[in-house]
């Protein structure tokens, strides 16, 4: 359990739980109004219920996201957030300080019994928070074994792409997102899990992809300062030295099949990636299945000629494009080169081989 640190706010003291080893999810800026102890105002023990119960909301913010725009938008949003939610919720701000910090923040928040962890940012921060819902291959749980509620996932989309939000029809409108959070309606969603070279599984909520698109995403991540233009730059750099590859694929623990000349393979829990490309148009994060879309023998000019179809989701009728619905899929590089890129939710994961499985209805999300 964390220790209790005390931070002065004007005339009052706010108790903030801080773990001994590293900064906590309960990071509160001194210039904010008095922040109540996250559990002090509950009139019943953790896990109980009461009409006066205040929801504990942990907002995970990447201040450097979207080339610094996320941090600036968050500062503007805070006064409205406090006025809209402050009467019924304990609001806790936590700013990430670097890669994987959001994972640690999320795990601590869940263990301490937070009502929800709210992502403020884009798909990268969302990806980390989703991974924070798990530890050593299992869901993270509340320290209080008698708790009757689980920690929900929430999202205020403010990122460069915000592709996952598109599957729900959500825009980069923080005020609409705050209304969703205020209502607190929850739905269970699926999460994908990836296993491969290491013993530690990796989780994703949106789209995982292999080969050209993953290579393009790897390069695009270096040009986020250019906004959505980064995806075009990434695609151009991805084509340099690209060769289609024969891949071995096993679906739903069946037999291995060879798919020749694969250009890209996309595993969709949701529909969009790459800044609005509707790559897996039939994917639904609540149906317990992936949609897998495979592009074979594509040349650079095929992308130019068919780009509009990829963006509006009508590419499944194009020659050399196939779609299958699966619960699990394993992919190997026949050549054994170890150079076929893999990414999930826009984050580079390494190279083939990998196995992807669906975890149905694993996380509650504020929708």
UniProtKB/TrEMBL annotation:
Keywords: ATP-binding, Kinase, Nucleotide-binding, Transferase. InterPro entries: ATP-NAD_kinase_N, Diacylglycerol/lipid_kinase, Diacylglycerol_kinase_cat_dom, Lipid_Phosphate_FormReg, NAD/diacylglycerol_kinase_sf, YegS/DAGK_C. The keyword Metal-binding does not apply. Gene3D superfamilies: 2.60.200.40, Probable inorganic polyphosphate/atp-NAD kinase, domain 1 (3.40.50.10330). Residues 52-198 form the DAGKc domain. One of its GO terms (cellular component) is membrane. GO terms for biological process: phospholipid biosynthetic process; sphingolipid metabolic process. SUPFAM superfamilies: NAD kinase/diacylglycerol kinase-like. This is DAGKc domain-containing protein. It comes from Rubus argutus (Southern blackberry). GO terms for molecular function: ATP binding; kinase activity.
């Amino acid at each position: 359990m964390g220790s209790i640190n005390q931070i002065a706010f004007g005339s009052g003291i706010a108790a903030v739980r801080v773990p001994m080893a590293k900064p906590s999810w309960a990071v509160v800026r001194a210039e904010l109004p008095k922040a109540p102890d996250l559990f002090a105002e509950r009139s019943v023990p953790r896990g109980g219920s009461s009409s006066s119960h205040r929801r504990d909301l942990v907002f995970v913010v990447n201040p450097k996201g979207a080339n610094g725009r996320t941090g600036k938008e968050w500062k503007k949003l805070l006064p409205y957030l406090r006025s809209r939610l402050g009467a019924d919720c304990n609001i806790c701000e936590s700013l990430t300080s670097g890669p994987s910090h959001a994972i640690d923040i999320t795990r601590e928040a869940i263990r301490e019994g937070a009502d929800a962890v709210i992502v403020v940012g884009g798909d990268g921060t969302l990806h980390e928070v989703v991974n924070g819902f798990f530890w050593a291959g299992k869901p993270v749980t509340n320290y209080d074994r008698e708790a009757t509620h689980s920690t929900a996932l929430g999202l205020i989309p403010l990122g460069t792409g915000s592709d996952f939000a598109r599957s729900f029809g959500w825009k980069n409108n923080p005020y609409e997102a705050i209304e969703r959070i205020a209502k607190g309606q929850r739905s269970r969603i699926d999460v994908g899990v990836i296993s491969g070279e290491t013993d530690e599984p990796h989780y994703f909520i949106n789209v995982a992809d292999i080969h050209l698109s993953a290579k393009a995403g790897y390069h695009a991540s270096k040009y986020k300062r250019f906004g959505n233009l980064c995806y075009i730059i990434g695609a151009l750099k991805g084509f340099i030295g690209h060769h289609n590859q024969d891949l071995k694929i096993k679906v739903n623990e069946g037999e291995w099949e060879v798919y020749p000349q694969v250009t890209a393979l996309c595993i969709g829990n949701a529909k969009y990636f790459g800044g609005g490309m509707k790559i897996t148009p039939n994917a639904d994060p609540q149906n317990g299945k992936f949609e897998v879309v495979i592009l074979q023998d594509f040349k650079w000019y095929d992308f130019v000629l068919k780009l509009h179809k990829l963006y509006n989701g009508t590419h499944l009728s194009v020659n050399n494009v196939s779609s299958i619905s699966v619960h699990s899929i394993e992919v190997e590089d026949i050549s054994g080169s170890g150079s076929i890129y893999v990414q999930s939710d826009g984050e580079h994961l390494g190279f083939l081989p990998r196995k992807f499985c669906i975890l149905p209805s694993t996380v509650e999300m504020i929708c």
